[in-house]
Amino acid sequence: MLTLKEAAFLVADAHENEDRRGFWDFLQALERGEIHTPQLFLMGDIFDLLVWEVSASHSFAMPYIVLLEKLCEKMEIYYLEGNHDFNLNRFFKKVQVVSLQNQPLILHTSKGNDEKFFLAHGDIFLNPFLQFLLKSLRNPFLLRFLNFINILTFSSITNCILARQKRKNLFYSIANFKNLAYERYAKYQANGAWVVEGHYHQNLLLQEGVVKYFNLPSFAYERSFFVVEFLPEVKFEKQKLRGQDV
């Protein structure tokens, strides 16, 4: 049984790229000891693009990968794959990668009342067509073929993807997301447990009846992360890197 420890950090949807380096500053703060945690949960889409079979995605991410491996000497790190970063196992030896098929990651509290948590990036329990597309895109043979074409065309595919991502609005509001959150919660069959997701970037916390649902905002917005607290009830305390405006 996996344990969610008090003061664990949750980070979702940093969408790190050449123009957006907030997550790098966050990792540097962890290394310098300016912020502390026993556990770090990366909830997917930490990079705009990172895939093992896509060689053009490696060079930007390698300093992050090296530092994450080093930080595993101080804390447990779980990396839940998203729809922009997947097939990650071969990048890491110490970071514990949680693939799409192994999500949600199920944990229990380390003390107090025995609370249960379902953690996932958020791209599970979608309609069958989208699920098929997501699984197809993770196919190593397809990805190797696309990587070959990408190399032949001087990274035209990855450059197009990254350019579109740089223009993407990460801070949008989804109309009637509360209704979608209830639907999402029901699909987990959580029955009073917590469901925590990224992917949608909505920063919505629901705690009504048996429903306990938290959709994390994009880390890229205000460079904020969340600290899990047991008081004894569960709380998700928003934090920012030192020097950031509240």
TrEMBL record:
<protein>
    <submittedName>
        <fullName>UDP-2,3-diacylglucosamine diphosphatase</fullName>
    </submittedName>
</protein>
<dbReference type="Pfam" id="PF00149">
    <property type="entry name" value="Metallophos"/>
</dbReference>
<dbReference type="InterPro" id="IPR043461">
    <property type="entry name" value="LpxH-like"/>
</dbReference>
<dbReference type="InterPro" id="IPR004843">
    <property type="entry name" value="Calcineurin-like_PHP"/>
</dbReference>
<keyword id="KW-0812">Transmembrane</keyword>
<dbReference type="InterPro" id="IPR029052">
    <property type="entry name" value="Metallo-depent_PP-like"/>
</dbReference>
<keyword id="KW-0997">Cell inner membrane</keyword>
<keyword id="KW-1003">Cell membrane</keyword>
<feature type="domain" description="Calcineurin-like phosphoesterase">
    <location>
        <begin position="11"/>
        <end position="133"/>
    </location>
</feature>
<keyword id="KW-0464">Manganese</keyword>
<keyword id="KW-0479">Metal-binding</keyword>
<keyword id="KW-1133">Transmembrane helix</keyword>
<keyword id="KW-0472">Membrane</keyword>
<feature type="transmembrane region" description="Helical">
    <location>
        <begin position="141"/>
        <end position="162"/>
    </location>
</feature>
